[in-house]
């Protein structure tokens, strides 16, 4: 029983530190989206995309639709953002790009930003641009 109390306290501290770290990351991400700091947004979100490998199928030759649903879910769940996929592989570049819309509550209003994400069939997705 004596050893159980330090273990519980340790787990509590680790849990709190993780929440604090996510909170700090999310605040920074929101600031960078509002300020349209493309490189910082890219640096913050590309690691979130790095583990989402494409799985091309007949109905989804790019293979990233489910990955993008997962990514948008992360933005909403982890950072409590109002994010949604605006269009999938709709920007006809090589490779095609997808738009994710993020709405951020700021100073009593809502700021909307669009994140352009490269969606290649042969590799992981990456953030390309952020704009209004």
Note the main attributes of this structure:
132 residues; alpha+beta; 3 helices; 4 strands; 27% strand; globular
Secondary-structure blueprint:
Blueprint: H1 4-34, H2 38-49, H3 65-79, E1 82-91, E2 97-106, E3 109-118, E4 126-131
Antiparallel strand pairs: 1-2, 2-3, 3-4
Helix pairs in contact: 1-2
Written overview of the protein:
This protein is α+β, with helices and mostly antiparallel strands and 132 residues long. 44% of the residues lie in helices and 27% in strands. It contains three helices and four strands, in the order H-H-H-E-E-E-E. The protein has a four-stranded antiparallel β-sheet. It is globular, with a radius of gyration of 18 Å. Mean pLDDT is 87; it is low at 6-20.
Give me the Rg, rounded.
18 Å
User: Order of strands side by side in the largest beta sheet?
Assistant: 1-2-3-4
The secondary-structure element order is HHHEEEE
Number of strands: 4
Q: TL;DR of this structure?
A:
The protein is α+β, with helices and mostly antiparallel strands. It has three helices and four strands.
